[in-house]
Amino acid sequence: QVQLVESGGGLVQAGGSLRLSCAASGRTFSNTVMGWFRQAPGKEREFVAAITWSGNSRYYADSVKERFTISRDNGKNTVYLQMNSLKPEDTAVYYCAVHSGGGSYYYTRNYVYWGQGTQVTVSS
C-alpha cells in the first residue's frame, strides 16, 4: 500500500514562507519523478513543480518560478516544497504525487499515487 502524507501547510501572510513535506511509504521510489500540484476552490488541479530522482532536473510552473523550490531526500523518501514570497493567489490545497514514468510531468493524468493534500492559505 503506497502512502503519501503531506504536511507543513497553514495560514501565512502575503510575503511569508512555508515549507511543505511529503513523506512516502509502502514501496521504494527509486528512479521516480515526484511532483507537487495544487487546487484552489472552483479550479482544476494544476502543476506546481516536479523533481527527478537525482534532483538534477527540476521543473516549475511559471507562476511559482523564482519563489518556490522543490527538493528531495531519497534516504528519507521525502519531497519538499519551499515556498517563499507567498501571494494570496497561492492559496490552495497542495498535493504531492508520484509520476507514472511516462508522459509529461505537467499533467495530473501522468501521476499514479497522490497524497491527501495540505491546505495553504495566504492572507493579504
Task: Output the keywords.
124 residues, mainly beta, seven-stranded mixed sheet, four-stranded antiparallel sheet, 0% helix, 50% strand, globular
Explain briefly what this protein structure is:
With 124 residues, this protein is mainly β. The protein is built from no helices and eleven strands.
Can you describe this structure?
By secondary structure, the chain is mainly β. Helices cover about 0% and strands about 50% of the residues. The protein has strands spanning about 5, 10-15, 20-25, 35-40, 45-50, 60, 70-75, 80-85, 90-100, 110-115, 120-124. The strands form two sheets. Strands 2, 4, 5, 6, 9, 10 and 11 form a seven-stranded mixed beta sheet that branches. Strands 1-3-8-7 form a four-stranded antiparallel beta sheet, with no helix packed on it. Strand 7 (about 70-75) and strand 8 form a beta hairpin. It is globular and about 40 Å long.
